[in-house]
Q: What sequence folds into this?
């Protein structure tokens, strides 16, 4: 997907599409690192409270961040300079560079400021502002969301919209009856909610197929087994079940990797944790498990293959038990991912 240029404030949380470099050193010249008097260190040799040194001219006071006056190479704390009318006495020495942030101390000219594929965070924004960057090139996937069953998808709609906002995706919510709702043009991925089951009113998969999408309906995932995936041209498709727990599982396992691919985001390594007790799973399909950290630092499985609200309330991480596995024993080290919005 093509990158878009947005103001720096609007780029927060989005995936960077390029690696801007520092055109000039940061800082661009020597600057005061403390509030005090800008002086030449060589003129202060021997100055002490017992041997005050009289200055030929009153020194210039500088604040943190001010450029150093020409010829000065240090900043002396204000308490080490005593002024009485036109007379200034120095009662302390300084080394060259003392109290100073040297030119290029933060970044040299030509150094990369940010890494492409990373999400722009507060520290990245600080670097960009210091470099004078006001706009950034980012990748923000365009998601078209179609709610197939209002009664079933209503609570899930809020969940999916919040997850999309957290991923900084551009969400375009269309009514199911709109003529262009299922068209692949203008979106990087089409998401639908509801109508993926086997009931008499569940016709999402067939309606998508009729609209030209290649659809693979039903996956070995619990919860979320009635989800569907597909594509048409360059656009991807994920059909989410109407129940919030199944939709969340499908989002974590299917949509999040898709968004990382679309935005060329750097993959985030899962955290390796130790289980406080075993995870039991049925072989034959992948199962999503929720976990919570214990006081001892291990992780306790709360639920496997289902996402009840009480487990979602207490959980901080999730893991996927592969289809060919029957689980993990107590004490095993396994990879986990943070739940959206959880540290």
A:
């Amino acid at each position: 997907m093509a990158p878009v240029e947005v103001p720096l404030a609007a780029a927060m949380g989005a995936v960077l599409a390029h690696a801007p470099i520092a055109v000039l050193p940061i800082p661009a010249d020597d600057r005061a690192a403390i509030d005090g008097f800008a002086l030449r260190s060589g003129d202060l040799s021997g100055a002490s409270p017992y041997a005050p040194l009289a200055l030929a001219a009153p020194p210039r006071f500088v604040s943190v961040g001010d450029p150093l006056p020409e010829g000065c190479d240090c900043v002396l704390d204000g308490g080490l300079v005593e002024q009485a009318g036109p007379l200034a006495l120095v009662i302390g020495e300084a080394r060259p560079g003392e109290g100073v942030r040297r030119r290029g101390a933060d970044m040299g000219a030509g150094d990369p400021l940010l890494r492409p594929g990373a999400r722009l965070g507060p520290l990245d924004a600080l670097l960009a502002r210091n470099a004078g960057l006001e706009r950034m090139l980012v990748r923000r996937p365009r998601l078209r969301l179609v709610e197939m069953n209002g009664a079933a998808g209503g609570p899930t709609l809020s969940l999916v919209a919040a997850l999309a906002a957290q991923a900084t995706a551009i969400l375009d919510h269309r009514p199911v009856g709109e003529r262009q709702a299922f068209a692949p043009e203008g979106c990087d991925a089409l998401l639908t909610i509801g109508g993926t089951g086997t009931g008499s009113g569940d016709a999402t998969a067939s309606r998508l197929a009729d609209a030209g999408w290649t659809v693979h309906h039903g996956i070995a995932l619990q919860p979320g087994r009635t989800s569907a995936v597909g594509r048409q041209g360059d656009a991807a498709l994920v059909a989410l079940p109407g129940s919030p727990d199944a939709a969340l599982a499908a989002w974590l396992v299917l949509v999040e990797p898709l968004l990382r691919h679309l935005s060329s985001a750097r993959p985030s390594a899962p955290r390796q944790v130790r289980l406080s007790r075993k995870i039991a799973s049925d072989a034959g399909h992948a199962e999503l498990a929720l976990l919570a950290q214990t006081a001892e630092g291990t992780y306790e499985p709360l639920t496997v293959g289902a996402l009840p609200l009480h487990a979602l309330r207490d959980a901080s991480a999730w893991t996927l038990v592969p289809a060919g596995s029957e689980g993990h024993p107590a004490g095993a080290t396994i990879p986990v991912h943070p739940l959206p919005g959880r540290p």
